[in-house]
Structure formats: C-alpha cells, structure tokens
Design goal:
Blueprint: E1 6-8, H1 23-35, E2 41-43, H2 55-69, E3 75-78, H3 84-97, E4 101-105, H4 114-127, E5 132-136, H5 138-141, H6 147-155, E6 161-164, H7 170-179, E7 184-187, H8 193-198, E8 203-205, H9 213-224, H10 228-245, H11 251-258, H12 275-287
Parallel strand pairs: 1-8, 2-3, 3-4, 4-5, 5-6, 6-7, 7-8
Length: 292
C-alpha cells in the first residue's frame, strides 16, 4: 500500500449512558469524519479510550472501524499493550479484521530498556502482515523511545512509521532525519501540524480532528498547495479550541457532544467535563463558527 499520510483523527469511542460500548454510534461518527475529508481513521487509540476497553471490545472496535470506513481511507488500529504477547494477539486480530496498519503504544510497566523496546516491536512486526507504527507519548507513558531505536526499527523495515506525540518537535524531526524520510512520521498534536509539516513530517494524528476535522485538514491542504499565509491563519484560529479541549480528559468528547454527535460519556475514571471547561469549549467553537 502507499504511504499513509495527512490528517488522521484518533476516533472517540461511543458508549451508552451505562458505559456499554456502542459500535453503531461509533461507526456513524466515523462515517461523519470521512465525509469531512480526513485522510484516515485511527480506532482504539488513546482518544478512543483503549486503556479502558477489554481485549474483546478492542477487537470488536477494529472490525467496526473497518466496516464503517468501507475502503474509503486507511484504517489504523491501536494494538498497544504492556505484554508483547497480547500486543501480538491484538495486532493479528486487527489484521484479520482488515485494518491497514497497527499503531502500537510503548509498553511502559514494567518499564523496558531500549533493547527491550526494540525486541517488542521486532516481534510484533514479525508476527503480522500489515504495517506497524510505534506510538510514542512521553507525557502519558513517563518516558520516551529514542530516535535511534526508531531509526533502527525503520531502517530494518520492521516498522512503517511512528506517531510521535512529543511536545518538542526536535524529537520527531530527528527521527525523520535519521530515517531520511523513509518511514512515516506523524506528529501527535493539532497545534504542531503546521511546524511539523515544515520539518518534513507526513501529517498528524490529532485528537482535535474529532471536533474540527475540516479546519485541521485545511491546514494540511493549504500547506500542500503552498498557501502558507492561509495555513498560518487557520493554525492560529484553532488554538483557542485546542487550549479549551486540553483542559479536561473528557474535553474532546464534550466538544463532540456539543456539536450534536451522540457519542455518550467517557468511561470512569474519566468524569464528565466541568461547567467552566464546557463554557470555554462553547466559546472556542463559536469563534470557529461551529456553534451559535
């Protein structure tokens, strides 16, 4: 398959009021995002609350995502786990379901060595027939995979790329440099998209794209056509929303609900969005013309 690139939302997972997984509502929301022009779909990522899902629920979500997308864009499936064996099981399940690639978050407890990380991803890559992406989120995991280990994996054709949710763009840029652009390097924050593209990165896997997909896609498209002034204008326009969304773990789901999508609550221990954050979300969405 061709290299996956562009704007890919890590899709929120819909639940009923009692916390039961609702695949039909999740599929409806995925179809909405595709209609808004996103370049791919990532199911069972952090924004999709993968750590709060059972293994069986994650497998069901893989199949639902593939069904909803119906071949229109690539489907990435989150198959990370602290256990290499379970990460392999999930990755093989995603492949059987028809996913185009797997995105494997760092195993973090017990914390592995750099050699352990290399071996983890090597064994997953050898066990599946679809591309493997590393998922690096230092703020959540408490540590980071080094650019050198990512480059080793990439240069040995064990991985297809990385979602690097590093706040410092020097980190994914160094991966890009060491691999000479041979693997796909995604940034992980919508606020980093424009500077990431200028460094040669291939796109973004960003939570904000669940609520404002058209705006995030516009930044990518404008950069591709060389209209940097308009891309910069859109970059600054979306920052108030991103800042509001990041005030609370339920912020993105609350934004999606405010926009009329029935995706239900987040699962505990994530509680509902406080009133003050909801107010900030409403104000930022009004500023984008999304709400009256």
């Amino acid at each position: 398959m061709s290299k996956i690139s562009g704007v890919i939302p890590p899709v929120v997972t819909a639940f009923d009021a009692d916390g039961t997984l609702n695949l039909e509502k999740t599929k409806a929301f995925i179809r909405h995002l595709i209609d808004k022009g996103v370049h791919g779909i990532f199911v069972a990522g952090s924004t999709g609350e993968y750590t709060l899902l059972s293994l069986q629920e994650r497998k069901e979500l893989f199949a639902a995502g593939v069904e909803a997308v119906d071949g229109k864009v690539p489907v990435l499936a989150g198959t990370g786990h602290n256990s290499t064996c379970i990460a392999i099981e999930l990755s093989q399940s995603a492949g059987k379901a028809g996913a185009d690639a797997v995105v494997v978050s760092l195993p973090h407890y017990p914390r592995p060595t750099e050699d352990g990380l290399y071996e983890h991803y090597k064994r997953i890559a050898k066990a599946v027939s679809i591309p493997v992406f590393v998922y690096n989120w230092p703020d959540a995991m408490g540590f980071s995979i080094s650019p050198e280990v990512v480059a080793r994996l990439g240069n040995e054709s064990l991985i297809a790329g990385i979602k690097d949710s590093h706040q410092n763009l020097d980190h994914p840029a160094e991966i890009f440099r060491l691999t000479e652009g041979k693997i796909t390097v995604f940034a992980g924050w919508a606020s980093k998209l424009l500077p990431a593209l200028s460094l040669g990165l291939h796109g973004i896997i960003a939570t904000a794209a669940n609520a404002i997909p058209e705006e995030v896609v516009a930044i990518y498209d404008l950069f591709q056509t060389g209209d940097l002034n308009k891309a910069r204008e859109m970059h600054y326009r979306i920052l108030p929303f991103i800042n509001a969304m990041e005030l609370h773990p339920d912020g993105i789901k609350q934004a999606v609900r405010l926009l009329g999508h029935d995706v239900g609550p987040s699962r505990l221990p994530v509680e509902e969005t406080p009133a003050a954050v909801t107010t900030a979300l409403k104000e930022s969405l009004r500023g984008l013309g999304k709400l009256r």
